[in-house]
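## retry 2 of 3
previous attempt timed out at serialization; input unchanged, resubmitting
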Amino acid sequence: MGEVLIRGGRRAEVCVASEELVVFEFEMDPRTDGAGPHLHRRHVDSFYVVEGELQVTRGRETKRMRAGDFVAVTPGTVHAFENASDARVRFLNVHAPGMRFDEYIRRMDAKEEVDSEEYDSFQPSTPAA
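## retry succeeded, writing output
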């Protein structure tokens, strides 16, 4: 069992944390926001639903993913996710390469001031360097 990070309505267990890969197992309460629109320039952000439904927006497409569904978001693609259902959802979230994303989530949960770009997370309007 890995480190568990808890923030209002969301539980994230760090399953793998390496330079090559960061894997979380998330559980989210009903009607809970995950992450608003953002993008990554150097890594793939993937979602695999284990139980329940997860709403994922990738580019202009919004999809309600169910148990067994998988989506990979390629670098440069704006995406967001949330539990828009009336039941809990459990899913795996994979970052490859890892980009120290476990540290990013840990610091955000601790309400530290964080430069998201240091962890390859950008707002859609942020110009390329």
